[in-house]
């Protein structure tokens, strides 16, 4: 095990470099990057040591856009996800790559939403009676007697693109005790804010491409797993994936600027076979690691993925690190196996765990005993970069990662 970890350490230090593009339209100097106070708060909150001193030494910048930083859904820590405002915030905070989770409307138009069926928690659809009645499952209030929470299910495939564009984006949340639809639209967690949740501008995939291209940044569209049975109105899963790629071709975007993603490995294999210029940097998202058995199986399958042409894998942060006998954060078996298989690693999602003073929850579950303050997220990030050797990191608040990336010369 010691030899394996040394291998990972060495490989990590040499491979932790950002994705680069030679495309002439790829110009990261268009934006005056602004980070705000959060990175400084986190650095100040860190335990004393060499890493804290290093990060403190970078306090005055300069800070530039970094391809190491993927804006996960834009900047949803404070802005409604997958809205124009969220994407603009991500770009301003130095994200070199911005994400659009791609799904489709009733009339098969591509739009940016984290899930095909999340409109009831990410938009104001339940406040618009003529659209709310079209939801797959209309709003049902909480029943204190039965102990059932309030619920609703509203999908992009329930409405047309024209109807979708009338909606306002809001912070992803709902109130389970709600007795009416207005109450249900609340529930924003305390570590987020409704300060910018006035009426977020929802985006089509084409609008997202145009906006991100205007910033000179890169793209990472995720083909979301459909929540309805495919084929849909004669439209197959393969045609859905192809339609995503076709939008970049139509817009004249170089494949070198696009990092397609999917949790469905068949989507990745489709791209490798039918769109090899896009497929060679397709990101195979991995959620098998959520269970111990799935983690073992996923780790064992990494060489097969590499053999089949996959170049980049992306599990959640927790799958890449663990604690050793001295309670130090070190690379996990998955990390070591991925590097041995010659796979690059992108991981998710930084700044999505809320307050870290109680261990950090889902994204830090394997290292929770070593996590006791918000500043510890930089300690984990440092291991991910210098020991695991990740190539990029999705973040709900890109400024936090941009600060580190610039300080470490990524």
From TrEMBL:
Family, as annotated: Belongs to the glycerophosphoryl diester phosphodiesterase family.
Alphabetic keyword roster: Glycerol metabolism, Hydrolase, Signal
InterPro entries membership: GP_PDE_dom, PLC-like_Pdiesterase_TIM-brl
GO MF annotations in UniProt: glycerophosphodiester phosphodiesterase activity
This protein's record includes keyword Iron: no
SUPFAM superfamilies listed in its UniProt record: PLC-like phosphodiesterases
Top EC class of this enzyme: hydrolase
EC number: 3.1.4.46
Record-linked CDD domains: GDPD_EcGlpQ_like_1
Name the record gives this protein: glycerophosphodiester phosphodiesterase
Signal sequence segment: 1-16
Catalysis: reaction(s): a sn-glycero-3-phosphodiester + H2O = an alcohol + sn-glycerol 3-phosphate + H(+)
Gene3D superfamilies, A to Z: Phosphatidylinositol (PI) phosphodiesterase (3.20.20.190)
Organism from which the protein derives: Glonium stellatum
BP terms from Gene Ontology: glycerol metabolic process; lipid metabolic process
